[in-house]
């Protein structure tokens, strides 16, 4: 009974998250990009209306402007919009909030082995964005869905996509010598290599969305989308974040999509089965965020914790969904 795809629930959700000690990453919908780009006061009024009322009680540590705007006709507006949003944050003394955008994996061409990866777009198109991130010390947010890649590529073994470490389940990169034991690490490094080729080797990567569905919508994905596999995937992800994976590129933070099933979300049936919790907030499968003492609670919150300098906030998936609505 949770319909979170409505802008009014943004207010309710941020209000209810207030004081819970949860640090938020917020996603701003694509529709704001042209306004921010053409009008600096639109960015300023967004900050005043949507961020200032909740600060400092609800810490917000990053903003992602747009969901893959570079793949749409909004691409020319992205940079001016980012600069105006950054200026609005400077104006309100909120420069500790990092401004970024989120890219999907479809921007990467020839991702395997990761050392061969590069951006589809020309360097002159991608460089201004990377320069902006580098200038402001912001990470690049990426959506990584090994599930989709696995469905599209029959040569990828299921165990490799699911973090199931099996003796002969690895892919080596002949250039770097890295032996990848899971698809997630290979996808992260593909983004890292593409950024190096575009001239930036110090921009951190943050994973805005990753996860595995528990129920499929069509006959193809029926078997793979299951409670068991979602459990394998998300447990493997937590382990990989704790152990830093066997990848070259550091992942600053990762957000699991999603905290709970959205049974009233429009669109294909499968999008409503990515949750860790049922809509009634009972757990669908066991996931121990605090295993082996590597995670610790931040400020007593239930689902905000840091893992050796890494912040992994599941609750944020909720906020992301809300703002995307
Ligand atoms: C710029 O944005 C402000 C705040 O949203 C709005 O009041 C104003 O009308 C906008 N100006 C233009 C030229 O669109
Ligand atoms: C929550 O929902 C799930 C799935 O619909 C159901 O199996 C479970 O029994 C429910 N739990 C409670 C406590 O209502």
TrEMBL record:
Q: Which domain of life is it from?
A: Eukaryota
- Keywords assigned by UniProt, alphabetized: Glycosidase, Hydrolase, Membrane, Signal, Transmembrane, Transmembrane helix
Q: Which family does the similarity line name?
A: Belongs to the glycosyl hydrolase 17 family.
PROSITE patterns listed in its UniProt record: GLYCOSYL_HYDROL_F17
Q: Which GO terms describe its molecular function?
A: hydrolase activity, hydrolyzing O-glycosyl compounds
Matches recorded under InterPro entries: GH, Glyco_hydro_17, Glyco_hydro_17_plant
Give the signal sequence positions. 1-20
GO terms of biological process kind: carbohydrate metabolic process
Name the Pfam families on file. Answer: Glyco_hydro_17
Q: What is this protein called?
A: Glucan endo-1,3-beta-D-glucosidase
């Amino acid at each position: 009974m949770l319909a979170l795809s409505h802008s009014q629930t943004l207010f309710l959700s941020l209000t209810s998250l207030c004081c819970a000690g949860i640090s938020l990453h917020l996603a701003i919908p694509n529709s704001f990009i042209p306004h921010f780009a053409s009008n600096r006061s639109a960015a300023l009024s967004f900050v005043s209306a949507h961020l200032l009322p909740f600060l400092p009680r609800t810490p917000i540590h990053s903003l992602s402007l747009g969901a893959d705007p570079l793949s749409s006709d909004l691409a020319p507006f992205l940079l001016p919009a980012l600069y105006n949003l950054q200026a609005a944050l400077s104006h309100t003394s909120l420069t500790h909030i990092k401004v970024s955008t989120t890219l999907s994996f479809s921007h990467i061409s020839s991702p395997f082995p990761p050392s061969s990866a590069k951006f589809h777009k020309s360097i002159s198109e991608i460089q201004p964005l990377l320069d902006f991130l580098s200038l402001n010390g912001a990470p690049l947010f990426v959506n990584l869905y090994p599930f989709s890649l696995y469905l599209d590529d029959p040569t990828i073994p299921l165990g490799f996509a699911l973090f199931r470490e099996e003796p002969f389940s690895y892919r080596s990169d002949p250039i770097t010598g890295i032996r990848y034991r899971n698809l997630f690490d290979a996808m992260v490094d593909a983004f890292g290599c593409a950024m190096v080729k575009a001239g930036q080797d110090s921009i951190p990567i943050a994973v805005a969305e990753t996860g595995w569905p528990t129920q499929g919508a069509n006959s193809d994905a029926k078997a793979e989308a299951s409670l068991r596999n979602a459990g394998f995937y998300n447990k493997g992800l937590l382990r990989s974040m704790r152990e830093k994976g066997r990848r070259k590129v550091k992942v600053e933070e990762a957000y699991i999509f999603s905290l709970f099933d959205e049974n009233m979300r429009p669109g294909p049936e499968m999008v409503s089965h990515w949750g860790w919790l049922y809509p009634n907030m009972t757990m669908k499968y066991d996931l121990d965020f605090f295993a082996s003492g590597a995670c610790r609670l931040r400020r007593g919150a239930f689902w905000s914790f840091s893992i050796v300098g890494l912040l992994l906030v599941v609750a944020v998936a909720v906020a992301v969904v809300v703002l995307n609505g």
